[in-house]
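User: I'm new to structure prediction. If I give you an amino acid sequence, what do you actually give back? Let's try with this one:
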Amino acid sequence: MLDSAYISEFQRYLTEDKHASNNTISSYMRDINQFNVYLGTKNIQDINDIIKSDVERYIEWLNKNGKSSATISRSVASLKCYCGFLISTAKITTNPLTNIETVKTVKKLPQILTNREVELLLAQPECTDMKGYRDKAMLELLYATGIRVSELISLNKDDVNLSTELICCHNNDKERMIPLYPAAIKAIADYINLVREQMLALPSELALFVNMSGERMSRQGFWKIIKHYQEKARIDKEITPHTLRHSFAAHLLENGADLKSLQEMLGHADISSTQVYTQLVKKQLKDVYNKAHPRA
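Assistant: Good question. You get back a string of structure tokens that encode the predicted 3D arrangement of the chain. For your 296 residues, that looks like this:
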């Protein structure tokens, strides 16, 4: 099995030197720990004893256990990063991941909601109690801005400026300003002015959105909220918080937004990540054409 001290040192490296996101760190640690468990079943006790064929057999094992090509590719990438770190810190002298080919994956275009499905989903929360006001504000804000769920639950009350109709979104050391449409402004204003203070466990709580215990909303908590309203709306598509982010991006492009502005709002470091939505919009148009044109 791998040296736990090395794994802990790698985690500190990702956190303190690379400033990787929590999601990235969590994925790397999960992949490395899974490989560690596998090595234990093969009685491999020292990372210096690992050879290329061990890694190849591990990839075969992942495949036999039903892991997708995307999951396997990510696992290999995690291990390459880890072994690269060990080489750079002289913990090992030979990299067993050298010449290991990354599993080729077919990139699927993200699923989006139609305008009608978005309207249906946003109409589900009923502003008859504190939870309804909060849920309405969260869903409206997510679709209005396209921010990630991690960014949504990290928002503090002071990050919202209702007078300028903007939110300030923080991601690691970067921040960006994103505008809000009128319905989102109203939903957030109603939540803040009418119910938020009553929901807080402590008056000093900074979080914009809190759970029913009055503490900052968690990713898991918001995921359950999304699933609840998907079922209530009877929408057959699998809806996650990221579905609203994808829908936000595609709908803006459909209505004439330029890629550079969209990149800034989404917080993409590389515009190639934003260009995926151009392909998505083209596919949507082609599908509409094929369904609607009498000679298609």
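You can read the tokens as a compact description of the fold. Here is one thing that stands out. The mean pLDDT is 88.
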